[in-house]
Amino acid sequence: MINWIQKNKIGLSALALIILTTFLLVLSLSQQNQLTTRPDDVPLRKSPNRQSKQILALKSGTKLTVLKRQNGWWYVKDAKDDKAGWVASWVANNTFLKKPTALSEATIVLDPGHGGSDTGAMSYNNKYYEKTYTLKTALATRKELEKTGARVLMTRTTDVVVPLLYIPRKAEKYQADAQISFHFDASGSHNSASGISQYYYNSNSLGLVQSLSNSLNNLPLQNRGYDSIPYLVIKDVTRPAVLLEMGFIDSDKDLTYIKSTSYQEKVAKDVKAGLLNYIQNN
Predict the structure, then answer these.
(1) Positive or negative CA dihedral for 124, 128, 132, 138?
(2) What is the SS3 assignment for 241?
(3) Full-prediction pTM beyond 0.70?
(4) Fewer Cβ within 10 Å of end Cβ, the chain: N or C?
(5) Is 100 domain-assigned?
(6) Backbone angles phi, psi at 261, to 5 degrees
(7) Torsions phi, psi of 107, nearest 5?
(8) pLDDT of residue 193
């Protein structure tokens, strides 16, 4: 027997390696289909969306088996009481959220206008570009929204061109609750205009633009109000979508705010407040 083992040592080693690899693979796959909730009161819903009926609230540490995945929503079964339903995976897996907020199950797409070779509008001296501050403002907004547990998706996070036709695709793919495009206006004449404006197009975006417009009244720049305009990024999308013009970049007064980190953070907080109000009422 010992001689046989010695003669077949290489083959036995290979077999042992195969068995170990198979075991580790099976173990890994089984763990991928397991989920332990982290926050308290994670909603278990009948369908993969936040407006679906809640079956129950899952306590922190609830062990679940993942049976199906759909755009970030997972169909799970609770082994303990045999209940099955859908959870927002980004909520169930959240490591810092103690309890979900009204915004936690929401999916928000943030679109920093322009980018790359497309500078957007420029300051009067051509020194400051719209693309720079749309990105800064959107990133500040993402940071603020992520505190609520919301899933935040960006159309860009660096200085690159994003084709206009591509922008609505992310909101459509993930069935976003809101798509918000950030821009800065220009009058074409130095210091001839000032203030912020909000735009929507489709009727399902009216509630969103109204809620955001109300919350943005807190900013130091005059709110010129909202209007309906067929901009491509808010027109060719079925999800609620708005475009925010957060100041005139060719106005010295507005530019001082636009460049300010504190102004960008104020915009972020007000957008969060507007979204919270909108979600709670929808």
Answers:
(1) negative
(2) strand
(3) yes
(4) N
(5) no
(6) -60, -40
(7) -115, 120
(8) 97
Give the model's pLDDT for residue 7: 58
Co-location of 194 and 119 in the same domain: yes
**Domain match, 174 and 158 both:** yes
Domain that residue 44 falls in: 34-92
Question: How far, rounded to the nearest angstrom, does the alpha carbon of residue 253 sit from its chain's CA centroid?
Answer: 31
Residues of the chain with pLDDT under 50: 12, 16-17, 19-31
pLDDT in tens, 171-193: 999 999 999 999 999 999 999 99
Q: Are 90 and 145 in contact (CB under 8 A)?
A: no
Contact partners, residue 204, CB within 8 Å, separation at least 6: 238, 239, 240
The enclosing H or E element of 109 equals: strand 107-112
* Cβ burial, residue 35 (10 Å; 0-12/13-18/19+): buried
What is the number of domains present in the chain? 3
Same domain, 145 and 275: yes
Q: Is 91 exposed, middle or buried (0-12, 13-18, 19+ CB in 10 A)?
A: buried
CATH number at residue 44: 2.30.30.40
Please indicate, yes or no, if residue 86 is contained in any of the structural domains: yes
Q: What is the pLDDT of residues 208-249, one digit of tens each?
A: 999 999 999 999 999 999 999 999 999 999 999 999 999 999
> What three-state secondary structure class fits 30?
helix
139 and 194 share one domain: yes
Q: Are residues 86 and 152 in the same domain?
A: no
